[in-house]
Amino acid sequence: MGDEKNPEKDFEKEKKKKLEKEPEKQTKKAPKPKKKKKKGKAGFLFILLILLAVICAGVYLLIPSKNRVSHNQYFGLEDDNQYGLIVNSEIVDITNGAPFEENGVWYLPFSTLYYEISDAFYYDGLALLYTDPLQTYSAAPGESFYTDSDGIKYTLTYQPCYFKDGSLCIALDYLKLMDYSYYTVDDTMKSIWVFNDWSEQSRASLLKDTKARTQAGIKNDIVASLATGDVVTVLEQGASWSQVQTQTGLIGYVQNKMLGEITEEAKAVPDGRPLPKYTNIAMDEMVVMGWHQVFSESGYSQLDDIISTAKGMNVICPTWFTIKDNDGNIQNLGEKKYVTKAHKAGLQVWVMLDDINISTDGLQVFGTTSHRKTLITAVIDAVKELGADGINLDVETIKSDVGPSYIQFIRELSAACRKEKLVLSVDNYSPMPHTAFYDRTQQGQVVDYVVVMAYDEHYVKGPEAGSTSSLAFVKQSAERTIAEVPKEKVIVGLPFYSRLWCETPADSESDKTDNSQVFVDNSDGTYDSKNNKYLLSSKGVSMEGENNIIREHDLSLTWLDDVGQFYTEYEENGSWYRLWVEDENSMDLKMQAACSYEPGGVAFFKLNMENKETWSIIRKYTDK
């Protein structure tokens, strides 16, 4: 009975076993969404947002800025009522005074006019002066007229100049009348544009309406709205944008695709007047000038020897006229028969006017209009009486405060010379920062020749012995002068002399025995000297004088490549003597250097200090 099967029990057992083997299948819940599918949807949304942001940013970048730059920001001004100033193609600083309107007339403080626009005006304390090629015009502050050199009166509807708050101010209409300066007023941008550059510039017409902006790029602020056909001056071309100047002077940037054909052309003077022409007298050949220094007589007795020696010279410059007082009177050593003989020898005569009389005051002579007039009249009359061909102006003693008055004198003298068809040449130091007030640029505009004295590199009463004119100094003098003056007007002055330097050991200033000596404390070794402390003096030596010194002391010579001269030295009675020799060798190098710049001429100081061989060297470069 125990082995007998029970079907019901067997079924229950089998069911139980099956349930034990498959518990998961019986208890498993409905599946949840897979995380992978959820992450994919979020990534899609994120990418979509980025694309939308990029599209929006792109659209934003394509939308030009509509903001206009304020005039304060454009000109860097704090006062909202102040007008900015543009001169030619530059926004200028108005520290010296802003433009302003008075009774419907625009004015500028004289200091702003002088330093930022034109230094051709001159105020002498009584009147505002302006000199053109032939006339000087005068306007007194507060008057409504001006007069010319002949006394003719011209009435205006406004005051050319007047004083406001203690400052002299000049009407822009008078500036336009005298100095050929055009100006416009832009009330939208509160700006004044003064234009007096009539040279050729790049210009183009606009192909479409556009905006000029503060910088390249459409997101920059607007400077001005421009219309199709407007002509702009192209100041600087870029790859896709160019800097331009509008017809009211505002400077901004426009896209290159808005510009038509760029051509080179000059502006016409708005009222149709021809620009003033400074006619100049120029020799048909290279100027070869020699200074003939005289002291108490004309030098007529020396002229035959000079003519026989100076073969190749075509201009002689006797030092006849000296300013003798503050009123503008002159000392005159001229002699008519000297001029006659020089002319027969084929020489022009340019009489020198100098200021070596130390009793004169440059500010009194050149700063007083009546004194300038006296001086000019005296010089012109004397030159005409002598039958000479021109004037050589040699002013070397003035200080920087006399500079503007001296330049006004040159303007007035040039006008007088132009009327009489006389040559005007002006002597100048080698350009240095401390002699900038001689204003060679102004000289180069109004005179016939500008002479640069490429000597006295080391000078009397200077602190150091050295060459009178090293090769490097000649090159520097020529280069710097030609940078300011048209080369055809430049005459390079060279020396026929050197200096014998004497250094005597000394302990103090009190050891000086005469006024020609300078005490030098060289304890720190600043200067090339055998002494720590010494008295320095020198004397001019002719070429023949150099040879005498060399023979007398049996000296050997050393060639200095960097200087372009022979050098020698010797000791005598406890003093050290030094000599940089000027001879045919050094003159050859100087002439070669000077003529390489293609100047209008060369000049030599001074006649009778050279040897005959020197002129054969000079002719090698000038007989062409």
- Beta-strand portion reads 25-35%
> What general outline do the C-alpha atoms trace?
globular
Spatial gap, N to C terminus: 156 Å
Low-confidence stretches: 1-7, 23-28
In short:
With 624 residues, the protein is α/β, with parallel strands linked by helices.
Chart the SSEs and their pairings.
Blueprint: H1 7-21, H2 23-27, H3 35-62, H4 71-75, E1 84-87, E2 90-91, E3 100-102, E4 105-109, H5 110-117, E5 121-123, E6 128-131, E7 136-139, E8 145-147, E9 153-155, E10 161-164, E11 167-171, H6 172-179, E12 182-186, E13 191-195, E14 201-205, E15 210-213, E16 222-226, E17 231-237, E18 241-245, E19 251-255, E20 263-265, E21 287-292, H7 303-309, E22 315-318, E23 321-323, E24 330-332, H8 336-344, E25 348-354, H9 362-367, H10 369-386, E26 390-394, H11 403-420, E27 423-429, H12 440-446, E28 449-453, H13 471-482, E29 490-495, E30 497-505, E31 518-521, E32 533-542, H14 543-552, E33 558-560, E34 565-572, E35 575-581, H15 584-595, E36 601-605, H16 612-622
Parallel strand pairs: 1-13, 21-22, 21-36, 22-25, 23-25, 25-26, 26-27, 27-28, 28-29, 29-36
Antiparallel strand pairs: 1-2, 3-4, 4-11, 5-6, 6-7, 8-9, 10-11, 12-13, 14-17, 14-20, 15-16, 17-18, 18-19, 23-24, 30-32, 30-35, 31-32, 33-34, 34-35
Helix pairs in contact: 10-11, 13-15, 15-16
How is this structure best described in words?
The model is unreliable at 1-7 and 23-28 (pLDDT under 50). This protein is α/β, with parallel strands linked by helices and 624 residues long. Strand 6 and strand 7 form a beta hairpin. The protein has 16 helices and 36 strands. The strands form eight sheets. The protein has an eight-stranded parallel barrel, surrounded by five helices. A six-stranded antiparallel sheet has the order 31-32-30-35-34-33. A five-stranded antiparallel sheet has the order 19-18-17-14-20, with no helix packed on it. Helix 10 packs parallel to helix 11, helix 13 packs parallel to helix 15 (584-595) and helix 15 (584-595) packs parallel to helix 16. It starts with 6 loop residues before the first helix and ends with a helix.
